[in-house]
Amino acid sequence: MDRRGFIKAMLAAGAAPVFMPGCCSCSSARTYVANGKVRLAAIGCGAQAWFDLKKLSGNKDICEVVALCDTDIGAKHTLEALKRFPNLPRFQDFRKMFDKMADKIDAVLIGIPDHSHFCAAMHAMRLGKAVYVEKPLAHSFLECELLMAAEKHYRVVTQMGNQGHSGDNYYQYRDYVNNGVIKDVKKVVSHMNMQRRWHKWGGKTSSYPKAETLPKTLDWEVWCNAAPYHDFSKDLAYGEWRCWYDYGNGCMGDWGAHILDCVHRFTLGGALPSEVAISNVTGWNPYVFPIQDTLTMKFGDVTLEWYEGLDNKPKLPKGFRYADNKGLFPASTANDGLIDPPLKPGKEIYLADGTVWQGLSHSSTLVKCGAQDAPRPEFEKAKSDHWRNFLLAVKGEETERSPFSVTAPLSEVFCLGVIAQRLNRGFKFDPVKKRAVGDAEVDLLLKGPAPRKGWEEYYRG
Questions:
Q1: What domains appear along the chain, each with residue ranges and CATH number?
Q2: Is the whole-model pTM more than 0.85?
């Protein structure tokens, strides 16, 4: 299928309906735990979800895990969670979990593939539950819009899992902007050049994978969620879903929230771009993400560049120093086995006066290029990590640092990047009206495909 054929198929499928908050009769009371512990249910309990679950449950003074839900519960990647919590109720479908024990749950962790974040989060929010959702927030621009509206309507605590947004870098960036240390930003260059799963496809994929025997532990129907259905293949599941446009948001969706969160919040003011361009594309096809590409976005006077691909690295500024902290990226399935690449995921921030600040991803603080060893202006230091911040927010004792009001616009930026990758071309965008400028193809992809039968209700508010 070529690009035009793909768009025609999308048009035939129809677009998702519009969200109408006023049509729902569900409770709009904000979730608080007046006393005791936050009763937490995990939707996803392997891989990244298991990492989050360990962090959340480690706060034993304020957190009690009450249920485990995973479409592949009992599979190898879920066994550690099952061993840690052997006596908890177990589910494969979050809808059944809520049907049975909604009154025993205060908050949920949602650590499942990108395409399935939205429905689980919307279901929980309708019931007045606090939600911790892994990044990127949702799979489409429309889903981000709906979640942001739902947060306002249901008034529940929300947090996206860009854990670096609770680190020292968050306070440093905020304070440096407020105190005029970082000002008059002209350009931000960001990069993530580590090995990705889709590189093995070599840009030659011409179809979805052939059907394979379904594991006995897996409920594939629920795994597919509202997204387009394809027969099970290990090349669609088990982390490989990040490769495919139908299920993942690619490299920018995966890493952008760890690299660009503070830039977007404090320098760009949470804005959306007016223009998205794509260049240096290798290995484009309509099924999986390119092997490499460069995305360029315009935010008023600020230009944002994003480089991905093993050999698609940006020109680095004078005085740039490669990080020498070994062990930052240990070999693992999540990191595709790559250990400590020379150019680590990060960004360079170019100011009008010629100053360049450089920094890595997650919680790493910024240093000035050419003056890395010089004293830096003081800034506030982190007091609680991302997971404890969420739990304390549910208890009403802190304010959540990455609510959907902040992270939905950030995730929408990534969704716009995915659209440029999927179409293999740029476009102009109206950041106020939140639609493309004279571009029906882009507007269609902002909405995404119509949800599958049985999942439509989540898109109606």
A1: 3-164+387-405 (3.40.50.720), 166-383 (3.30.360)
A2: yes
